[in-house]
Amino acid sequence: MSLKHAILAVLSHGDRTGYDLVHKMDGSVANFWPASHQQVYLELKKLDELGFVQYREKEQKSRPDKKVYKITKTGIGELKSWAEEPLVIATPKDELMIKIFAGHLLEPKHLANELHRVRELHQSKLDEYLAIEKTRFQGKLTPDRLAQYLTLRRGILFEKSWIEWCNESLKRL
Amino acid sequence: MSLKHAILAVLSHGDRTGYDLVHKMDGSVANFWPASHQQVYLELKKLDELGFVQYREKEQKSRPDKKVYKITKTGIGELKSWAEEPLVIATPKDELMIKIFAGHLLEPKHLANELHRVRELHQSKLDEYLAIEKTRFQGKLTPDRLAQYLTLRRGILFEKSWIEWCNESLKRL
DNA sequence: CGCCCCATGTAAGCAGTTACATGATTAC
DNA sequence: GTAATCATGTAACTGCTTACATGGGGCG
Q1: Mean pLDDT of all residues in A79-89
Q2: CA of A114 to C1' of C13 (A)
Q3: Domain B3-84 listed as CATH 1.10.1660.10
Q4: How far is B56 from chain A (nearest CA, A)?
Q5: SS (H, E, C) chain B
Q6: Would you kindly state where each structural domain of chain B is located, as residue ranges?
Q7: pLDDT per position as a tens digit, B65-111
């Protein structure tokens, strides 16, 4: 399971609340390991029981209290030994490809409209990533920032490959 | 859920046994919706109960008997109306990106070795796809074959984007 | 007055994985 | 003889989704 390790990886870059983990993650883990708030709070609880994280309650006036989570030494150890294991590549699931595979049953026009729409969605995601690259990853990077940048670059190349595929597919239809 | 529809999509291209669905799917659905044999047999059972597929038992000498599944008219209807719904893009889960995100905790050399290894895995997948393209998708294609070809092209562009990412990441490390 | 943001949780159910189970034939 | 291929299933468990639940503050 990887949500546990995704959370530990984020916490290795700095302390966060459950709410932060779910939301403020632009250009970060949310783009390659999405999770609902329910799932995140559940995993934080488990990680706490395992001793991989600790939290301190922080009272706030005019806002609900919150729990700020911090990764422990044991947590860092666990994350490191997990990250060192050789990766087994999992083929990603892709619903659109199933629809395309069934595309011979549909109106070509309907399919083309859908491809246009999907292309625009990927284009705006790409624009978003490029903006982050421009504003937040210029010049020399520390190892910590480089790790984050590499994941952003993956997002950029991924979105580009989608846009390219949409374009060539539209030509072939 | 999509495994049901993945199976229906394959059956819309021709009759198959459960065994076929799990195995002989090179350049097909297995590359974007992998499933274990247990899962496939279970879904076939459910699809049968729903009336979306039918099977005839086929006795074989010197081989175990098998069930050849065929999509029904109701099944085609279900597949079509599902495929016509606008797609909601799901961000794919990617374990490697979590490891990269935690990369600042690892030896740079270890990370580089891992990236080399991953690149080779994607390269061989790409070679496989390119071979299929060359041998099986030359010349003018029927709508049915075109649908299959587009999914293959997606695989090709996907693997290329991985190789490119590995190369640029290795330079940055 | 209603909607969005902040902030955290429980419970039921479904999709998918891992483990267990069987058995004949063919190829080396 | 032993490994791989063909062929189909059940049972237990885990990860994740969907639905339900609460409640104050700020903004228009």
Answers
A1: 95
A2: 32
A3: no
A4: 23
A5: CCHHHHHHHHHCCCCEEHHHHHCCCCCCHHHCCCCCHHHHHHHHHHHHHHCCEEEEEECCCCCCCEEEEEECHHHHHHHHHHHHCCCCCCCCCCHHHHHHHCHHHCCHHHHHHHHHHHHHHHHHHHHHHHHHHHHHCCCCCCHHHHHHHHHHHHHHHHHHHHHHHHHHHHHHC
A6: 3-84, 95-172
A7: 899 999 999 999 999 999 999 999 999 999 999 999 999 999 999 99
